[in-house]
């Protein structure tokens, strides 16, 4: 089950936000480990991410009744928001642009599957699909397939040997040519 939380129009550039997001993305850490990691990162972006993460956790708790321990971060998306354009005075009466960038942050949480359920599903699949006849016939099928592959490899080798072209001329002529062909 996916739980989402987003923060929009954050007054920090997406580049700065992505630096911190890349430290936690795709690590499959628990929420507690992620929070601890974000608290000790000395970047302003970690505050925004932590705030959005707490929002996602409270969404999971309030809407679905899921514990904080059963969640992990599936994906974090940082997009660029609108840019505020300002001007700064420069020498000789010129003006230079200032771009105050903003960003949108979205955190998607996922729940861990309980291990008991996975074991039960695996047992059901093995009981339904495999019978005693299938188990006895499987090695024969594999051997037959192997022989066919082996034959085809032999045929390919023979074909290559028949069509193999022998080099014409001597090697010395090729090495000492004055002009390349």
SSE arrangement:
Blueprint: E1 2-10, H1 14-24, H2 31-39, H3 45-64, E2 71-80, E3 84-89, E4 95-100, E5 103-111, H4 115-129, H5 132-163, H6 171-175
Antiparallel strand pairs: 1-5, 2-5, 3-4
CATH topology of the domain at 2-112: Ribosomal Protein L22, Chain A
Order of helices and strands: EHHHEEEEHHH
In CATH's first tier, which class of the domain at 2-112 applies? Answer: Alpha Beta
Structural class: alpha+beta
Number of strands: 5
Give me the CATH superfamily of the domain at 2-112: Ribosomal protein L22/L17
Uncertain stretches: none
Describe the largest sheet. 3 strands, antiparallel
Helix content: 40-55%
- What is the tally of helical segments? 6
Rg from alpha-carbon coordinates: 32 Å
Distance between the termini: 65 Å
Strand order of the largest sheet: 1-5-2
User: Per the principal axes of the C-alpha atoms, what is the gross shape?
Assistant: flat
> How much of the polypeptide forms β-strand, as a percent range?
15-25%
In the CATH hierarchy, what is the architecture of the domain at 2-112 at level 2? Alpha-Beta Complex
Mean pLDDT: 79
Description:
The structure is a single chain. The protein starts with a strand and ends in a 6-residue tail after the last helix. With 181 residues, it is of the alpha+beta class. The mean pLDDT is 79. The protein has a domain at 2-112: Ribosomal Protein L22, Chain A, CATH 3.90.470. It has helices at residues 14-24, 31-39, 45-64, 115-129, 132-163, 171-175, and strands at residues 2-10, 71-80, 84-89, 95-100, 103-111. It is flat, with a radius of gyration of 32 Å. The chain contains six helices and five strands.
